[in-house]
Amino acid sequence: MRTAVATEVRRPSAVRALTTLLAVTAAATVVVDLLNWWYAPEQGFGLAVRSGWALLRAFGFVLLVGHVRRGRTLARPLGLILVVTTVFAVGRLVVPRQGVPPLPGIVGFVGLTALCLAVLWLLYRSPAVAGYLTRHRGRLVIDRQGISWREAPPRRPEVAGWLLTTRVAAFTYSPLMLVPALVAAGTILDGRLVAGPAVAFWFGFALVTSYAVLFCTFFVLRGRRWARGLLVVLTLGVLAVDLPLCWWLLGVDGLVRDGVPLMTAGGLAIYGLWRASKGSGEPAPNGPGGSVGREEESSRDRR
């Protein structure tokens, strides 16, 4: 068995700038989250859960750095979803239940938003970055030359980048429901026992949704039209269940803090399906809807 040795390729300056910017954004996410916790007037269980969820974004940016350094095609849709959810996750921590947000929290949120916008600009508007993010994950390959572990395009047909964006957005449904469900579980500990069955249903529905999304997106990436319709129905069903539960168990504040991010993810998933169907015949290499299949010329250059 042999292992393919990849030739070291010097990364473009835009790619190096992007990796540095992602590292700074990850650090800024931690700093802003700690500032929000420090200046929050109420440091309860709900804030702790939402702060922990926001801190996970820092780990997400670290993973994104690895995808960018390796030139993975997944980096662009993952970066889009990560940026959007980070802005919402941190933004809902800045605004208190009552009164005016503290000045350090506002400054930190504005700075983090600027960093996220810069990340998006490099991911989707830089030709150098777009030309670099064309690689696929490595896998075990058996051919006439023997057995090797090397980069290989996926066996499924080439798909539009917007479909990958839809897939990543849909995968956020379950965690975006689990966070408010966990916050609502804290109300049971405070004596609201009547909410117990609803919270248990919420947790179960979130877990079932994760498997349903996995099933739908598997066939969406393989061009099945019925899977696209099923994913739209699933998205609407998720919103129909999650939003009323947020309003009933967490109030209007919870509906805004936890319902709006899920609505944004659902809207982005449906928009990605629409853009993919609209531009399926005209791939845009510099936009998120461009083809993510690897070009032969790029393949030869990177090897």
TrEMBL record:
The chain crosses the membrane at residues 21-39, 45-65, 77-94, 106-124, 168-189, 201-221, 230-250. Residues 280-303 are annotated as: Disordered. The keyword Cytoplasm does not apply. Keywords: Membrane, Transmembrane, Transmembrane helix. Residues 293-303 have a biased composition (Basic and acidic residues). This is Uncharacterized protein. It comes from Micromonospora pallida. The lineage of its organism: Bacteria, Bacillati, Actinomycetota, Actinomycetes, Micromonosporales.
